[in-house]
Amino acid sequence: MLHDIIALRKTIEQDIEALGSLPTREELERFRLKHLVRKGTLAELTERLRSVPKEEKPTVGKELNALKSFAETEFKRLSAIHASHTTPTATLDLTLPGRPWLYAPKHPIRQTLDDMLAIFQRMGFAIAEGPEIEDDKHNFEDLNFPPDHPARDMQDTFFVEVTTPDGIKRHDVLLRTHTSPVQIRLMKAQAPPIRAVIPGRVYRNEAISARSLAEFHQIEGLYIDNDVSFSELKGTLVSFAQQFYGPMLGGAALQYRFRPSFFPFTEPSAEMDITCFLCTGKGCRICKYSGWLEILGCGMVHPNVLRAGGIDPEEYSGFAWGMGIERVTLLRTGIDDIRLLYENDVRVLEQFV
Q1: Whether the Cβ atoms of residue 304 and residue 144 lie closer than 8 Å to each other
Q2: How many folded domains does the chain comprise?
Q3: How far apart (Å, rounded) are the C-alpha atoms in residues 128 and 48?
Q4: Domain range for residue 37?
Q5: Domain presence at residue 172
Q6: pLDDT at 157 over 80
């Protein structure tokens, strides 16, 4: 076995000498395939090492390892020499005209949402999010919806069929119909004071038309602390309206009003209107010639909702509000069909950089 190792070393030395000082890629590959691959000469000797007597294995193994190291080192050295003298293939033609940068602007809905969030963040509101697949308890029951409320019907809500690991089918899982379930999750997760805005997608089983979709976006807010009043609610929303809608009025003063309304999760409840910024209050088709645009619903958090969130309504109070993003985006951009916002038509989207 030692004689074979010595003979192979001489062969490898001769092959290395034949490669010369600047071997080609083909010559290096032939050397590798002959000696260094799995079925090469060195591998063949390694296989034969198993049949060497036990007392000779240390000596034979040492010589064989030395030969392997020598062959691999020389191959790497010659490969480095080859690489250093190889002219790289040109991959860049400097004579070609440059390619223009393609700028992807924010989607109009994202622009509207970011502008709203920025205003509320400056007021000290944090951003909170929650799951889009909810259960009846968070989406309806804890928000003071009565058991026979129409929103719980199949024709208004997308229910999801879920089977538990035990094989039990649940019929109380649904795609959330508003972002309000996050209010319950916030109240259960942290003690007051709570001050957060909640953006997100919501789903309702509605007919697709130029004015409505089955999937859309909402943003709502929640503030809970000691002695929170309706005046604070009005001050917060008026400040938001002045910052967000004021610049659209073209110098005209923003007028606003609160009208009594009803929502299961607030009491008292109201809807907020502002001067129509499309006609500056003169009356147009969009505001139905009233001069007013409804922008949101709001109210003081119902005591039952506070209790469902684990908060004592005798100690704490709070207010909440909510508004749709798509409707505001349509008014800001002048788009007259909500479906255009979701068709990914570059001709529409590139207008709103």
Answers
A1: yes
A2: 2
A3: 69
A4: 2-84
A5: yes
A6: yes
